[in-house]
Amino acid sequence: MILEGKKILIMGIRNKWSIAFGIAKSAYENGAQLLFTYMGEDNKPKIEELISEFKGAKAYVCNGASEDEVVRETFEKIKAENGKIDGIVHAIAHANTEDLHQDFIYTGKEGYSHAVDVSAYSFVLVSRLAKEMDLLNENSSLVTLTYHGSRQVIQGYNVMGVAKAALETSVRYLAENLGKDGIRVNAVSAGPIKTLSAKGIKDFNSILTVVEEKAPLHENVTTTQVGNVATFLLSEMSSCVTGQTIYADNGFSIIGV
Ligand SMILES: NC(=O)c1ccc[n+]([C@@H]2O[C@H](COP(=O)([O-])OP(=O)(O)OC[C@H]3O[C@@H](n4cnc5c(N)ncnc54)[C@H](O)[C@@H]3O)[C@@H](O)[C@H]2O)c1
Most buried among 12, 60, 66, 217, by the most CB within 10 A? Predict the structure, then answer.
């Protein structure tokens, strides 16, 4: 029970296939009390049903994780109802579909900014507001989700690769800034998983096939396996780990040809 007594906020739950849901399962099994944010008022009943298996869990709407006022309002509610928390998982990303379907070179200014804004800047904003609003206990841990397309060209990942590179670099700068307050910041680079977001990537199934064929462990990862790595990073077990991007990909990223 390495998260016993810890309150963890998980941002970006959508459905039972979400990586956020796998992280929730692992964190809950390890003793955490869970709070969630999701997008879309209309999704409230669906999300409440989804998280009902986590005793005491609460969910808050957050329609725009890169918008100052939206995040501020959400964090105010969370703090008023729950007090300070011990960790945040940021599992949020978005790019326009056309930017994932055409060659990267055709990405326009709006699409480029949108992907970086929602997928990378939102983590900077969340981290800053959590600190400024005194939402975090000492020894808190912040975790975000990234993908190998930040480092190598993966057909169809396109501008999202640029956004993830910005996110991974942000993790390092945030880790330096927040280390003074005893707060750690890390990213989990998950192998490909068939979630709703992943369906936006062209030929996603062929990526899954290649991983099965070439990864040292010859399997695709599950959301619960990724969740276990996030749980480790949220816990005191990783108290000397900060500013890192930890791969949870069955080793696929070490393979050249
Ligand atoms: N699925 C994969 O193969 C994979 C691999 C590595 C990393 N990731 C990353 O994991 C994270 C979670 O994605 P997922 O695959 O579980 O998909 P998902 O669709 O289940 O989750 C994405 C979440 O982002 C939220 N979101 C999008 N725009 C938002 C905004 N402006 N404000 C607030 N929330 C917003 C959505 O509502 C959704 O809950 C993402 O950062 C994704 O890039 C996914």
Answer: 12
Which domain CATH number covers 66? 3.40.50.720
Is any atom of ligand 1 closer than 6 Å to the C-beta of 92? yes
The answer to whether 242 touches 179, Cβ cutoff 8 Å, is yes
pLDDT value of residue 178: 98
Q: Establish whether 173 is a catalytic residue.
A: no
Say if 32 falls within a structural domain: yes
- The answer to whether 208 and 192 are in contact (CB under 8 A) is yes
Q: Is 28 a catalytic residue?
A: no
Is 147 domain-assigned? yes
Its pTM surpasses 0.70: yes
Could you tell me if the CB of 140 is within 6 A of ligand 1? Answer: no
Query: Per-residue pLDDT tens for 153-167?
Result: 999 999 999 999 999
Considering the domain boundaries, does residue 58 fall inside one?
A: yes
- Active-site position among 60, 157, 173, 247: 157
